[in-house]
């Protein structure tokens, strides 16, 4: 049996697939960040907290209202997205005339508050959320044992990412969004309600984070710190892909998931830093990111 | 005239000494993780446990005025050191208790040595506290990596799980736990076929678990803690690793982790603890009181250790009639500890609190009668077998 | 000055009536009370030197100048306190000096971007018939077009919206003479279709070829109005105003 760099090919395929699964979360989260950054020019530091809220709201719907996973997948992004709309209207919208740094500080503060509230109420050990009955079990792929739920995560993420890309790059609504990203004043002068579009865009980006949170609930522990652990990596993904680039966020998200997966095989100790090393290299060679447009 | 002054001075001294006897003021500092990974297993629960010890001791009736303060060290050694210094130098704290996270505990241990104060550690795991880093004022109360490795490692090898693969958190605690367990496994006749070190803290362990799976080991030793352990176990179940016959050995698992996992996922795990709420009538009664204050959560062994150590300390204060570190330490090491929660124990010369440890297995959902009914007792490990022999630790106090 | 204005006012209320319009960029006061009127179906130009306040006047009418004061009555409605999007919805369309073609949008998307604000706009086919160059480049990136094509696209897209009142900011700037002629023909055709146009121009020969009246702007005020038929008679005065 041949080996590749000392790793049997089965193991390698398995790891590639696992990388793709992690990449699904990176892609969904960095996509939301990219959409928000594109139009609002704000680095949404509360994205991780909103992802965590997604998982918690799914848990609450299940525990207090008996609403199952599938409904949660639909309802949670709407509920958490609506909270994003409120935050944008009440707070973020007041900062557009200031330096970007203020938006970053505000959303960072919000993230700490949200995490603190959940920690206070639910503790840090995490809460169990069962995999929906339809997706329990696993497929034996020969080279690995793929849990059905993980397969579903990849499918759901690809569909949502592609759907978002299509909506932004190929529809009239998306054209308005792209135009407003370039020149909001002129778009407003055409009679389009740009402030409302900004609000809804923020809500949508937050909804994407919440969707990722629901997807994550059955496989990662539902705990108040789950977003904080993940979000730093996701920021790196966004920087590598190019701030605000939709396609960049998606491709880089999946791609870096795979790169990280491979690192876990060849040099496990480095898997926590490989993404940041790539980020540093990309910033040196192409500061606008792999898919970024140099302004 | 001169005589009169002397007499007055003598009188005053007597009066002051008398009042000191009647009204000793003790300030206990509970230093632990109040917001991060270990907040549920230590955190506010440890403050509650300390308060219960003060109540049960009857401090008020005995003329000892006890105040409890607490702070969050965020699992960071530098934060822990700063708080410890501030407490000793400015706030008049007499004794620091709990302090989970080995690196933070070792940092506090050094401040403590410098200030000549007492440190009752319940939350941390590192055997160094009673080994090369042992200090005259430090007692390591509840558990350590040796006891965990010894209990779980030996039991698993004896049960036929000979080939081990380690999933290790890539920092000091994980390394030391892996090392301790490796020693026990090989001494008991098992072998270690491999190990992988994962970043701390991590979220996705599936990649490492697949590597463990393809190693063909009988058992995967989880040399990590808290959320990392919970996620490792969850994902092992998801990827069919436990179902395919490989066992998991949780080397540091608290009851709060099992609660988070749910029995469906955690069932069958073998683990070592110093305390379980459902051991006997005394532990049940005490845990009931604890639960009432903590919104229904049952205490962990760390909480039990805080209670037990604070009680032993207060007994020493009463017996010696003061706060002199040397006298208190001498008393605590000479006299056995005795309480309804951790039973009887002794404090060894190196500061190791010696007591029985318990080997538990997590119940199946069918065996459990409800929330928090999680463990069945497999074996009681006598204190002398549970902990590292005195001479192996290399503690300078012993020679 | 305002007496002169009053004399030229027609009996019916003008389509657009600007009074005492003041405007600021941050702290600098740029418009100091602009007054002028535009009647329905007219082509009117704002002439003046660089920095006189012509572009700022258009931006103040459109509402994209953040700080403004005075009165802009359009079609019987006061616009001064409305946001740009409401002004657009009232029926004023704007073609900015820098053309404002979006690079992340295709030509087609650029063309279809401005929403319909009222009935009676040109259809997509009418527009493409008017600008045949665009038809072949519909799927290109907007900013890949030549300068002249970008200018045509910038005009073309606001013809679809149904707005009958156009603000055009220097549509001929930097373009080759043959393109300028083409734009001149287009504007004449628009006029014949009933559009009302306010044109900011440096090139007063071009302005003379299509406009009905010319307002002269200097230091943030309208200082004179010259009907196109009197342009030749006033050419000396005009040269003095424009410094040519």
UniProtKB/TrEMBL annotation, chain A:
Keywords: Amino-acid transport, Cell membrane, Membrane, Transmembrane, Transmembrane helix, Transport. It is found in: Cell membrane. It holds the Pfam family BPD_transp_2. The keyword Membrane applies. It is a multi-pass membrane protein. It comes from the Bacteria. InterPro entries: ABC_transp_permease, BCAA_transport_permease. The chain crosses the membrane at residues 12-39, 73-92, 101-118, 149-168, 200-220, 232-259, 266-285. PANTHER family: ABC TRANSPORTER ATP-BINDING PROTEIN (PTHR11795:SF442), BRANCHED-CHAIN AMINO ACID TRANSPORT SYSTEM PERMEASE PROTEIN LIVH (PTHR11795). Belongs to the binding-protein-dependent transport system permease family. LivHM subfamily. This is Branched-chain amino acid ABC transporter permease. The lineage of its organism: Bacteria, Pseudomonadati, Pseudomonadota, Alphaproteobacteria, Hyphomicrobiales.
TrEMBL record, chain B:
Keywords: Amino-acid transport, Signal, Transport. The keyword Transport applies. Residues 1-22 form the signal peptide. PANTHER family: LEUCINE-SPECIFIC-BINDING PROTEIN, PERIPLASMIC BINDING PROTEIN OF ABC TRANSPORTER FOR NATURAL AMINO ACIDS. Belongs to the leucine-binding protein family. The lineage of its organism: Bacteria, Pseudomonadati, Pseudomonadota, Alphaproteobacteria, Hyphomicrobiales. This is ABC transporter permease. InterPro entries: BCAA_transport, Leu-bd, Peripla_BP_I. Residues 26-363 form the Leucine-binding protein domain.
Automatic annotation (TrEMBL), chain C:
Residues 16-244 form the ABC transporter domain. InterPro entries: AAA+_ATPase, ABC_transporter-like_ATP-bd, ABC_transporter-like_CS, BCAA_Transport_ATP-bd_LivF, P-loop_NTPase. It comes from Devosia nitrariae. Gene3D superfamilies: P-loop containing nucleotide triphosphate hydrolases. One of its GO terms (molecular function) is ATP binding. Belongs to the ABC transporter superfamily. Pfam families: ABC_tran. CDD domains: ABC_TM1139_LivF_branched. Keywords: Amino-acid transport, ATP-binding, Nucleotide-binding, Transport. Signal peptide: none annotated. This is ABC transporter ATP-binding protein.
């Amino acid at each position: 049996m041949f080996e590749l760099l000392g790793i049997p090919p089965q193991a390698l395929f398995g790891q590639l697939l696992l990388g793709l699964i992690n990449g699904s979360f990176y892609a969904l989260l960095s996509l939301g960040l990219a959409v928000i950054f594109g139009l609002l020019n704000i680095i949404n530091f509360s994205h991780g907290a909103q992802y965590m809220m997604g998982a918690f709201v799914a848990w609450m719907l299940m525990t207090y209202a008996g609403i199952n996973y599938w409904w949660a997948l639909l309802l949670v992004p709407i509920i958490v997205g609506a909270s994003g709309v409120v935050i944008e209207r009440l707070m973020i919208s007041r900062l557009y005339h200031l330096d970007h740094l203020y938006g970053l500080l505000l959303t960072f503060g919000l993230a700490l508050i949200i995490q603190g509230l959940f920690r206070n109420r639910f503790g840090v050990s995490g809460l169990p959320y069962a995999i929906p009955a339809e997706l329990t079990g696993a497929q034996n792929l020969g080279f690995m044992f793929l849990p059905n739920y993980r397969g579903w995560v990849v499918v759901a993420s690809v569909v949502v990412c592609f759907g978002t890309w299509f909506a932004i790059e190929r529809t009239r609504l998306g054209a308005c969004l792209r135009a407003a990203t370039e020149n909001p004043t002129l778009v407003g002068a055409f009679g389009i309600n740009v402030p409302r579009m900004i609000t809804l865009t923020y809500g949508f980006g937050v909804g994407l984070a919440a969707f990722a949170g629901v997807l994550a609930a059955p496989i990662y522990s539902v705990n108040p710190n789950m977003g904080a652990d993940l979000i730093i990596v996701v920021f790196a993904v966004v920087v590598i892909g190019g701030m605000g680039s939709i396609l960049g966020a998606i491709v880089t998200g999946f791609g870096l998931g795979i790169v990280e997966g491979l690192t876990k095989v060849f040099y496990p100790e480095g898997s926590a830093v490989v993404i940041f090393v790539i980020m540093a290299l990309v910033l040196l060679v192409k500061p606008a990111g792999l898919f970024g447009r140099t302004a | 005239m001169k005589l009169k002054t002397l007499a007055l001075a003598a009188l005053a001294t007597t009066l002051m000494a008398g009042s000191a006897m009647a009204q000793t003021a003790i300030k206990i500092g509970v230093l632990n993780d109040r917001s991060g990974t270990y907040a549920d297993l230590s955190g506010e629960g440890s403050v509650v446990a300390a308060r219960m010890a003060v109540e049960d001791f009857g401090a008020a009736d005995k003329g000892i005025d006890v105040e409890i303060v607490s702070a969050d060290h965020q699992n960071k050694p530098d934060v822990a050191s700063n708080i410890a210094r501030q407490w000793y130098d400015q706030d008049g704290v007499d004794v620091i208790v709990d302090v989970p996270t080995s690196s933070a505990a070792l940092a506090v241990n050094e401040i403590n040595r410098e200030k000549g104060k007492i440190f009752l550690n319940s939350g941390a795991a590192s055997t160094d506290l009673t080994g090369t880093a042992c200090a005259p004022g430090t007692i390591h109360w509840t558990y350590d990596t040796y006891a965990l490795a010894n209990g779980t490692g030996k039991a698993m090898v004896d049960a036929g799980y000979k080939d081990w693969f380690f999933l290790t958190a890539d920092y000091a605690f994980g390394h030391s736990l892996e090392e301790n367990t490796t020693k026990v496994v090989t001494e008991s006749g098992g072998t270690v076929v491999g190990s992988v070190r994962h970043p701390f803290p991590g979220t996705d362990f599936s990649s490492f678990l697949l590597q463990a799976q393809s190693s063909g080991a009988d058992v995967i030793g989880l040399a990590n803690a808290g959320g990392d352990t919970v996620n490792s176990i969850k994902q092992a179940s998801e990827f069919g690793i436990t179902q395919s016959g490989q066992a998991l050995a949780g080397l540091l698992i608290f009851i709060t982790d099992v609660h988070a996992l749910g029995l469906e996922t955690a069932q069958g795990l073998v683990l070592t603890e110093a305390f379980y709420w459902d051991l006997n009538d005394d532990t049940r009664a005490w845990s009931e009181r604890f639960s009432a204050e903590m919104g229904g959560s049952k205490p962990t062994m760390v909480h039990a250790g805080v209670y037990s150590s604070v009680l032993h300390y207060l007994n020493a204060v009463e017996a010696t009639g003061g706060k002199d570190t040397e006298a208190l330490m001498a008393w605590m090491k000479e006299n056995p500890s005795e309480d309804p929660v951790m039973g009887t124990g002794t404090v060894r010369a190196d500061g190791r609190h010696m007591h029985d440890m318990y080997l538990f297995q997590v119940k199946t959902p069918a065996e459990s009668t409800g929330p928090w009914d999680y463990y069945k007792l497999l074996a009681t490990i006598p204190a002398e077998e549970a902990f590292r022999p005195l001479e192996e630790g290399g503690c300078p106090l012993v020679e | 000055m305002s007496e002169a204005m009053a004399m030229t006012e027609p009996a019916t209320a003008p389509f657009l009536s600007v009074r005492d319009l003041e405007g600021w960029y941050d702290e600098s006061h740029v418009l100091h009370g602009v007054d002028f009127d535009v009647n329905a179906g007219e082509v009117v130009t704002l002439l003046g030197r660089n920095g006189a306040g012509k572009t700022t006047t258009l931006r103040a009418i459109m509402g994209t100048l953040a700080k403004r004061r005075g009165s802009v009555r359009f079609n019987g409605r006061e616009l001064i306190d409305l946001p740009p999007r409401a002004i657009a919805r009232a029926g004023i369309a704007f073609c900015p000096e820098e053309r404002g073609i979006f690079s992340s949008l295709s030509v087609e998307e650029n063309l279809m971007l401005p929403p319909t604000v009222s009935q009676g706009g040109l259809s997509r086919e009418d527009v493409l018939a008017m600008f045949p160059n665009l038809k072949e480049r519909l799927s290109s990136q907007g900013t890949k077009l030549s300068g002249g094509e970008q200018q045509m696209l910038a005009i073309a897209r606001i013809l679809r919206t149904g707005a009958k009142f156009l603000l055009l900011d220097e549509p001929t700037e930097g373009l080759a003479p043959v393109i300028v002629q083409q734009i001149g023909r287009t504007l004449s055709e628009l006029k014949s279709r009933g559009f009302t146009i306010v044109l900011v121009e440096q090139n007063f020969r071009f302005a003379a070829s299509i406009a009905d009246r010319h307002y002269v702007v200097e230091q943030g005020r309208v200082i004179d109005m010259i009907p196109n038929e009197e342009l030749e008679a006033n050419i000396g005065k005009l040269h003095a105003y424009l410094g040519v």
